[in-house]
């Protein structure tokens, strides 16, 4: 029996002879080689001083760790070997022009979940492949101002107990695990389908006092469990690695929220549209789930700048739609019985 591998999927995808598909397949192949290099460095015990060390701040003011910068260098080197016109990264203010005639632009979060590096919790790399529209040599950033529906492919690597790749080439969301024995990525699951009902929610509850009323009401109602308007119990998770929270939702359902809040600089939440929310939304939709900025579809947002943030809600479709109604119907009308009022469990 033949084993389903990443290379087999890429070959079958590129078989049409379409040069853009060939470019996508070649790029994903190079990214997979780069991810193995990053994983090997992590495994060499670089988690302590050297790689959790800090450098300065990136474009968004986040502290850059050595591993953020190292991963960025590795992935930039990798895509130099692929037909890629432009490379935009969380770690670089402006995109890098590579081969102006190539058909692909890549946006990447080279190291997602940086705050977890020194705690040995799963971290990852998120990428989005777009058509290299416009004139890459004259206005490099313009190619990244396309809505996420235009993505040709998207995915993430997760450096966890296993090195896994979650990938969509526009037809389903596939999960591969790297096999050291076989030296390649092997299919771990058939294309994922997220259950449309959620039993688990993920949010950083420490920000409760900063949220707006709709988010508080939603979380309050989940917390009340079987004694509240939802009439069933919920579990809660927050890994603080978008890739790890997304992987869990792809495997067993649930919902993730990083809403905007009242902290300075957090009106649009924390996550970046072009290289975090868009690729995650693409993977989630391809797995039958939904992704919004609490109300509107993430993939339809026209980016205005490379590093812009967006509130992000994704996961099981019914739950994502319910969260939108908490925002559009005052006090979550229609979702809540008057019996339960507005007094939240988190409130004194
Ligand atoms: O620490 P917080 O505010 O809970 O934020 C956690 C979120 O921030 C992120 O770490 C942001 O990504 P980076 O590590 O790439 O900056 C996400 O992976 C995660 O979901
Ligand atoms: Mg990130
Ligand atoms: Mg990052």
TrEMBL record:
Gene it is expressed from: fbp
Assembly and interaction partners: Homotetramer.
GO biological process: fructose 1,6-bisphosphate metabolic process; fructose 6-phosphate metabolic process; fructose metabolic process; gluconeogenesis; sucrose biosynthetic process
Protein name: Fructose-1,6-bisphosphatase class 1
Record InterPro entries: FBPase_C_dom, FBPase_class-1, FBPase_N, FBPtase, Fructose_bisphosphatase_AS
MF terms in GO: fructose 1,6-bisphosphate 1-phosphatase activity; magnesium ion binding
Catalytic activity: beta-D-fructose 1,6-bisphosphate + H2O = beta-D-fructose 6-phosphate + phosphate
Top EC class for this record: hydrolase
A cellular-component GO term for this protein: cytosol
Family: Belongs to the FBPase class 1 family.
